[in-house]
Amino acid sequence: MREPLRLLITASGKDKGRLTCDDLLLIDSEGRPVEATALRPSAETALHTMLARRQGVGAVLHTHSVWATILSEHHAPAGGLVIEGYEMLKGLAGVATHEHRLWVPIFPNSQDIPALARDVAGSFGTPGRPLSHGFLIRGHGLYTWGRDVDEARRHVEAFEFLFETVGHRRGRGQGLGRTGPSPFRPRAIPRR
Hints:
By secondary structure, the protein is of the alpha+beta class.
């Protein structure tokens, strides 16, 4: 781990599509701004700092996509979802084949971010269901990371492609490890 740990994080309440350098602040390992500022760190800072403490993590990214949200709701009762058989899995660091079986854990959404960060931290190394490239927060979004921003962005792109593909496939009745009836099953349209 880098000592002292320093992270550049988005200030709370900023439009992520219009960020400027003035919307970012430098924080320490406890999530406190390193310099005096009127900005407040993101409400989810504890998740970012927990991940940044891990070996090999140089960047953490968090998204709020439609497919991540839908799939996190649908698969939450199972605690996560398995994605396998897709070439895009090779976009994740260390994955060399489409035959890779990726477990994406889903954690309950909570406003107690330090407790959520402890739960996520405790899941690394879980036998049979390792937390390796990212996770979902139910009804909220994706967290992923990489050794640098480029790798973390590549992971976001791979995950978002995979989530959308799984969601569309499920919508055509070709579910992958369904945990119950698909919310995407097309409804019969009555004939007139």
